[in-house]
Fold this protein.
Amino acid sequence: MAVVVETKELAQTIVASLIAGVGIAVVFSMAIWGVARFADLSREERPLAAGAAAAMTAIALLVTLAAVVFGVIVMSSK
């Protein structure tokens, strides 16, 4: 009997896409939140906290960029 749908591979694809989609959305929203916190803390003249918010924003943007690059590499290698 022929197998029409490989359920194990389909389930792996669904789980991976959900994790990646939610993960990227959360990390990028952290970057947006960090920018907003940086602006607020800069106006309140709290340079140390503003610097921490800017660092978190930079890290979140780098993680987002790395995930996009990883996704492109994975998709182009198949």
User: Anything to note?
Assistant: The CA atoms of residues 12 and 33 lie 31 Å apart. Helices lie at 7-43, 47-76.
